[in-house]
DNA sequence: TCCAGCCTTGCATGCGGATGCAAAGCTTGA
DNA sequence: TCAAGCTTTGCATCCGCATGCAAGGCTGGA
């Protein structure tokens, strides 16, 4: 197995010093036109590619970013992953991924990433305060994604998980829904908790009866079992709002197949995350779409800025999300509303 | 931001040389009990963790593995990813991920990984012969996953994508199905092509009429449009076999919602990959389960062995897969079969 | 008691590239 | 033509750890 060419090899072939080669391959390096040409020719001939490991050691930057995500098969994190990878590779950085079980904290993942000397960490899982402190102690920018951080020096980028619920409640209210149930993931699931809180608040603000809140696994099966637990009382409900699409879809299957209900005529359903599954013809699930690409772009931006300006106020950014209405909800159309007597809506 | 401790810091504190520290942290390093204790105490006090980048430079190994996967939201690659990450971290290695669009070749991804100096590459996407040669030239073991490689020095781990189709055909045949259609992903999709070939061969072997083969996108939408393209002729069919669950599910939705057909009574459906979506109560899709963990374990094993024994015969390993029967197919049960007159089955 | 042989330890160097510093080369204006 | 000032170049060193080599310490057997 042939060793790959080094800058010394290139220098020898080009008849220059190693530092000249290094300068040709550095963005700020000064080199004359002729030197540059001879070096590039030699480099091309030898198939020279600068060794990123040596570069890392010298620069004190690994050009590796860590990403911690929670394992949910039905979440749309494949999309998030792709966003992150693409954004990182734009600047020549690579992504180190850690996947955390939904019921676990991400502390071990953070530790492993720090040991690998990543330059920054994007974390979309719950972690302890100590884990966050480890990052700031090591000077590694940490950005939480869709999660709160109670630790100084840590930035966060979130969808307005709570605020969007006002839109959801407005929509349900306009369609005449009054009694709602919320399906949440429970445990230390920050996203679910925020969505729940937002929903309950929005119901109160809109004058709806306080919704029932059920917690179960943050999955299809969790959605199913939560609805099954309601039993016959489900017929008193007007709408099911779930903290993610997976639970909403689980709920839909039970509502239709076990209880024989019609969606949205008998009961409406709202999910969250706008997954591909929710767009299936069988579901056509009304959901909330997050701007994952925007979230990751912002998160990376924050992490980079943190390197340049270590002591700056912590950022707490939200990236706009959006309610996508499909056929599991039934807001009256403009024409339908016209047919109602004025005032009926209140 | 405080710099992290180095082996020199530890050495100074412990009153030994840097090499002593290095030896304490090396698996084969020799150090007396007292030295070891003093070094470990000093290391603990300083929170010393060996810098993996310096280690990499010194050892010529990055302890980074590259993984190239195709982006399919409805595939179960979240599971595959988790398997790979977990297996790698067992040995202290990390995973660099590259995600390739379904319609693209993975050549750019391979190049990026090589430039990052990964120690090995696991590739579950189509790549050109040249890309594979780049790997072997650079001495980086390349293992293809569920893909053929026509390049010397490259190993491959596959499910028996073709052979399992005999089981599928046996099952369909037993239920009385005769006229089948196969939905494939087309393009340079090796997995789909293998499954298709296997199915057609199995039908021939079993004496069934030659199946219709339709190609479309390897997705839910692709499955839908393929079935829609059949039009009314769909009523002449007994079974739809798809190259993945996503297409099968798209097909199911069109068969039921557009054509009003009953599954499995009017037509049977078989998918592939045993995704979570296929297990939904609404689908209960008969599918083929691959042993992803086993596949990745074997792939990593091959890559590692390739490092130790560079010139060995190329390995071509298959990891057993398994037909999982659910309610979209209807193989007669033993009791049902008893009720049939003997010989009816032939 | 003495020496052979093993275990420990430190020194020096290598891995491959970045960069401060000073010397050398070049441009420009008087 | 010459000096001031800028650019280009090479030298030396650093980044942090691993390891070959040789010196020193230790053990045990004769």
TrEMBL record, chains A, B:
It comes from the Bacteria. Residues 326-335 have a biased composition (Low complexity). PROSITE patterns: HTH_LACI_2. The lineage of its organism: Bacteria, Pseudomonadati, Pseudomonadota, Alphaproteobacteria, Rhodobacterales. This is Catabolite control protein A. Signal peptide: none annotated. One of its GO terms (molecular function) is transcription cis-regulatory region binding. Keywords: DNA-binding, Transcription, Transcription regulation. Residues 326-346 are annotated as: Disordered. It holds the Pfam family LacI. Residues 5-59 form the HTH lacI-type domain. The keyword DNA-binding applies.
